[in-house]
């Protein structure tokens, strides 16, 4: 019966049906192997099945700031209040012209674990963010360096412990989860979801395959790998403005020496006031630096976006054609595959967010999923047509 119905279909429809099965299987692979990996890792951390350091290492927190006096005044006390035995906070001021210097000077007098340094505004021939990273690492007194920015705060006082305990022998860098501060409004929800979705992809691909991106809002590494081979690990792309986080990770990666912290204590919240500007800037930076990423994780991520669209288009074509042919079981199968994918696509990040203790999304993923490939193409086009801005000055 089923065989007769199948062979009664037009050849083109048979090809589309087989194509739907193929792209759906790839989506299933990506969901279970990549997107589910942070959730699975979080469960392993909570159950104590992840290797942890015998002693917590001393940590130097490097904070990048540029004209963010209000952020520093509000957020620095949260950093200094971390529950950790041995740490320091170093702020690198990128030539601020507001009240940043006054606030940093006051903080110097209040805490013996706080230091700051200022970059000269005239330095513009190299990436200022990478130069700030270099100055901060050189000023650090401890072997573990943790990068963040002035507008970011840890979600928990246990942030440093959640990151530092993962520096076991063989681990040189630890990525931590980052989320935007939850705000109302559809535009904010879509941007927040896109950032969280890309964070999960970075975490999942790094755990499952190889390093794929990273955020300088929550990135820890050993000082020795930064100065490995008597050279700075960032110098390969020193003429490129972005890349102080994702390209840096790519340079220091050797096999499995980079891991990801997947506990609620490891979360950092980005409290940027202008979310649209921050998101646009980050999207442009990533669209440009993505060309330097490792091939395999980049290919898997691109295939995820493409096959998601192909799956929907193929399913719609099958449903329309089979309804006209009255092949109800094939139409029902196409609908079932779409529903199963939608459930997995929503529930996996939902329960991962639940384990991380951050805002959870139900309908936003479905709204944004079909727009994501076009958003990616838009920013890739913008990055390709304005490449000069990524080599000199700020974006």
Span between N and C termini?
62 Å
What name does the CATH topology of the largest domain carry?
Answer: Spore Coat Polysaccharide Biosynthesis Protein SpsA, Chain A
- Helix proportion: 40-55%
Please count the helical segments: 15
Average pLDDT reading: 84
Give the overall shape. elongated
Largest sheet: 7 strands, mixed
Q: What is the number of E strands?
A: 10
Largest beta sheet: what is the strand line-up? 3-2-1-4-8-6-9
CATH homologous group name of the largest domain = Spore Coat Polysaccharide Biosynthesis Protein SpsA, Chain A
Task: Bin the strand percentage.
Answer: 5-15%
- Give me the Rg, rounded: 23 Å
The H-and-E topology, N to C, reads as HHHEHEHEHEEHEEHEHHEEHHHHH
The CATH class label of the largest domain is Alpha Beta
- CATH architecture of the largest domain, by name, is Alpha-Beta Complex
Walk me through what this model shows:
The protein has helices spanning 2-8, 11-35, 37-46, 69-80, 100-110, 128-139, 159-164, 186-208, 223-226, 246-252, 275-289, 295-325, 328-356, 364-369, 372-385; strands spanning 59-65, 87-93, 114-118, 144-149, 152-154, 173-175, 178-180, 219-222, 258-260, 268-270. It folds into 2 domains: 2-36 and 298-390; 50-293, Spore Coat Polysaccharide Biosynthesis Protein SpsA, Chain A (Alpha-Beta Complex). It is elongated, with a radius of gyration of 23 Å. Strands 3-2-1-4-8-6-9 form a 7-stranded mixed beta sheet, sandwiched between helices. A 3-stranded mixed beta sheet has the order 5-10-7. It has 15 helices and 10 strands. With 395 residues, it is α/β, with parallel strands linked by helices. The longest helix is centred in the last third of the chain and has 31 residues, at 295-325.
């Amino acid at each position: 019966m089923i065989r007769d119905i199948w062979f009664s279909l037009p050849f083109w429809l048979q090809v589309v049906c087989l194509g739907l099965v193929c792209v759906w299987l790839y989506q299933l692979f990506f969901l279970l192997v990549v997107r589910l990996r942070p959730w699975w890792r979080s469960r392993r951390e909570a159950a104590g099945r992840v290797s942890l350091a015998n002693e917590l290492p001393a940590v130097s927190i490097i904070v990048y700031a540029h004209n963010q006096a209000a952020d520093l005044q509000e957020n620095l006390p949260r950093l200094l209040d971390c529950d950790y035995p041995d740490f320091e906070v170093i702020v690198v001021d990128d030539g601020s012209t507001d009240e940043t210097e006054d606030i940093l000077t006051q903080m110097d007098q209040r805490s013996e674990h706080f230091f700051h340094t200022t970059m000269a505004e005239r330095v513009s021939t190299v990436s200022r963010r990478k130069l700030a990273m270099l100055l901060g690492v050189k000023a650090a007194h401890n072997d573990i360096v943790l990068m963040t920015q002035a507008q970011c705060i840890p979600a928990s006082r246990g942030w440093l412990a959640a990151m530092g305990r993962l520096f076991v022998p063989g681990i040189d860098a630890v990525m931590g989860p980052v989320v935007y501060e939850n705000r109302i409004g559809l535009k904010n929800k879509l941007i927040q979801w896109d950032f969280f979705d890309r964070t999960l992809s970075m975490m999942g691909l790094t755990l499952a395959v190889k390093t794929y991106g990273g955020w300088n809002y929550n990135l820890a590494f050993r000082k020795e790998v930064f100065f490995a081979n008597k050279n700075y690990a960032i110098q390969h792309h020193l003429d490129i403005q972005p890349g102080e986080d994702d390209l840096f990770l790519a340079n220091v990666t050797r096999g499995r020496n980079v891991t990801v912290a997947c506990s609620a204590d490891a979360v950092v919240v980005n409290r940027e006031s202008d979310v649209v500007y921050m998101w646009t800037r980050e999207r442009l930076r990533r669209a440009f630096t993505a060309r330097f990423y490792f091939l395999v994780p980049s290919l898997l991520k691109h295939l995820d976006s493409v096959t998601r669209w192909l799956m929907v288009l193929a399913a719609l074509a099958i449903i329309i054609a089979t309804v006209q042919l009255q092949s109800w079981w094939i139409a029902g199968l196409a609908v079932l595959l779409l529903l199963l994918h939608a459930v997995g696509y929503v529930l996996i990040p939902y329960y991962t967010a639940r384990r991380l203790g951050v805002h959870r999304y139900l309908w936003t993923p479905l709204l944004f999923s079909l727009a994501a490939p076009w958003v990616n193409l838009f920013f890739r086009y913008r990055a390709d047509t304005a490449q000069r801005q990524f080599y000199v000055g700020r974006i």
